[in-house]
Each structure stands twice: as structure tokens, then as C-alpha cells.
Amino acid sequence: MALIKPRTANIKGLNEVGRYAVGVQWIDGHDSIFPLENLRRGCPCEKCGGAVEGEIAPASQRLRALSRLGEAAVFIAWTDGHETILTMNQLRALCRCAYCVAEPERPITG
Ligand SMILES: [Zn+2]
Ligand SMILES: [Zn+2]
């Protein structure tokens, strides 16, 4: 069986974890848990710019919808009406687990 390069950031699973987090199972075997607040702060849309500062209203960090956009991206709709589209690479870059944070090749923001 061929090994998949770690750079291939694709997911095999996406699910809600309780009310405040999203779990992602990556094709390379990695598991991530993303608190919803972190996902909202990392929203890369033009308005948010991947760096939402300060307090985030409760409605802005609650899920209305969560789905995959094909193989390339994840779509998140928030209860305040905002929508976030994260590519798999952007999503992976938001993982704050010890393994990802220690990986020197990945830019760490925030
Ligand atoms: Zn946004
Ligand atoms: Zn990680």
C-alpha cells in the first residue's frame, strides 16, 4: 500500500463534537478537534481575514450547518448568518494539537 504524503491534506471524516467543537479525521491518520471559536477566528473570508480579534458573540460561534465541499474544502454556516469556507489546508493549519504546533514547516498564526 502506497503511503500518502503528509502534505495531502484531505479528510475522511467530519463531525460535530458536542456543541462547541468539530472533529476532523485526516486521510493521513491525524485527528483534529477544532473548537468552534477557533474556526470562526480563523475564517479566511475577506471580512474576517483569518484573524478575528476580541469577543465573539455566542451566535457567531454556533453551528447552523457543517458540510464538505467536495474534496477540497469545508463549509460552515454560523447562526449569525455568516458563512466560512476553509480549504483543507487552511483547516489543517488551524489545528493546535502538539504535533501540528511543533511542525516547523507549517506557519503558525495567532
Ligand atoms: Zn468570515
Ligand atoms: Zn494536529
The number of domains: 1
Bulk shape: globular
Which compounds are bound in this model?
A: zinc ion
How far the N terminus sits from the C terminus, by CA atoms, comes to 38 Å
Question: The CATH topology is what?
Answer: NE0471 N-terminal domain-like
Topology:
Elements (H helix, E strand, L loop, with lengths): L10 E7 L3 E6 L4 E5 H6 L21 E7 L3 E6 L4 E5 H6 L4 H5 L8
Antiparallel strand pairs: 1-2, 2-3, 4-5, 5-6
The structure holds zinc ion (2 copies).
The site of one zinc ion (ZN) has 6 residues, from helix 3.
What does this structure look like?
The chain has a single domain, classed as NE0471 N-terminal domain-like (2-Layer Sandwich), CATH 3.30.2020. The longest helix is centred in the middle third of the chain and has 6 residues. It is an alpha+beta fold and 110 residues long. The protein has 3 helices and 6 strands. A 3-stranded antiparallel sheet has the order 1-2-3. Strands 4-5-6 form a 3-stranded antiparallel sheet. Strand 2 and strand 3 form a beta hairpin. The radius of gyration is 14 Å and the shape is globular. Bound molecules: zinc ion (2 copies). The site of one zinc ion (ZN) has 6 residues, from loops.
